[in-house]
């Protein structure tokens, strides 16, 4: 799935690891990702978390999509920062799942917490 994800790869997102119900990815904040306040635009941070969530929830095999997601921004990313997102399945029930993604700067500071709800649509 990630190999065909043109949007994520065009932003330089790298998939570092996957396993059952989990994934880790990273992205460097570029000039195009910085907003008028000089910090990473939240949409890009969300996109990194969402991509990592997608890789985790699709790790079980069937085609799975987001049914919904929310993010809490805790701290700012800045130009040149490398962000690392780690996704972990919290629970699955029927065709649904709940996943948490933590986005950190490489120094370990937490920048955002994301929760995604998945829905399996294929077998």
From TrEMBL:
One Pfam family recorded for the sequence: 4HBT
InterPro entries (alphabetical): Acyl-CoA_thioesterase_PaaI, HotDog_dom_sf, PaaD, PAAI_dom, Thioestr_dom
Keywords assigned: Hydrolase
Domain spans labelled Thioesterase: 37-111
GO molecular function (one): acyl-CoA hydrolase activity
Highest taxon in the source lineage: Bacteria
NCBIfam families: PaaD (TIGR02286), unchar_dom_1 (TIGR00369)
Matching PANTHER family: ACYL-COENZYME A THIOESTERASE PAAI
Homology family: Belongs to the thioesterase PaaI family.
Protein name from the UniProt record: Thioesterase domain-containing protein
């Amino acid at each position: 799935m990630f190999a065909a994800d043109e949007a994520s790869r065009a932003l330089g997102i790298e998939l570092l690891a996957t396993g059952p119900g989990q994934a880790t990815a990273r992205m460097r904040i570029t000039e195009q990702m910085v907003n008028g306040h000089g910090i990473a635009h939240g949409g890009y941070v969300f996109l990194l978390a969402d991509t990592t969530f997608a890789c985790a929830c699709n790790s079980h095999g069937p085609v799975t999509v987001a049914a919904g997601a929310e993010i809490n921004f805790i701290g700012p990313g800045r130009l040149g920062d490398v962000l690392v997102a780690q996704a972990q399945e919290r629970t699955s029930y029927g065709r649904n799942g709940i996943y948490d993604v933590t986005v950190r700067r490489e120094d370990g500071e937490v920048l955002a917490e994301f929760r995604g709800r998945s829905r399996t649509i294929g077998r």
